[in-house]
């Protein structure tokens, strides 16, 4: 080895190092970037604009997949038992959509222990429609009686968006023949918006409705409600 005496005096290798210690964070500018991938600037793609188009598609896919979960009954851990049929469901989804179910499954209630909820006051079709809305946020075509049953179910389980949908159906399909029934329903379920809407309708058609058999039946069932509605006609 050349210059051995210079680099290895007495066969000893000596290394000298210079160490730098920082008392803070050292920041340096990046001198350059090299990449095989395309780089987009703010003008080349508008994520906000795309979001408006993409989200509804994702929502539709998600709703469809959740609906399949209901129909297939995969990994179900609870049953909703109506008058003659039982429907498998999932506690986590029911809890997320209804505060009543959430409270039921968060405590040592009999439904949580037995993994079965008895709903004998609702018919099979109403329970199934209720589950369809819980899983997919969709409501199939309604008739007046269907909407009434579903409205009562939505109120019972405090699914307010579904209750509003049914309430909107009543307002759209309100007529002289069903106004009294709608008024009784709204009053029973403490729906002040629907109640006020129906009362206004009755007062606009007071001559026909207050001389009808439906109004006479209303006075037999709830005289106070009938008097309250008539009073509005003379209230300033």
Automatic annotation (TrEMBL):
Q: Which InterPro entries match?
A: BTB/POZ_dom, SKP1/BTB/POZ_sf
Q: Which domain of life is it from?
A: Eukaryota
Gene3D superfamilies reported in the protein's UniProt record: 1.25.40.420, Potassium Channel Kv1.1, Chain A
| Pfam families, per the entry | BTB
Q: Which residues form the BTB domain?
A: 76-143
Protein name, UniProt field = TD and POZ domain-containing protein 3
Q: Which gene encodes it?
A: Tdpoz3_6
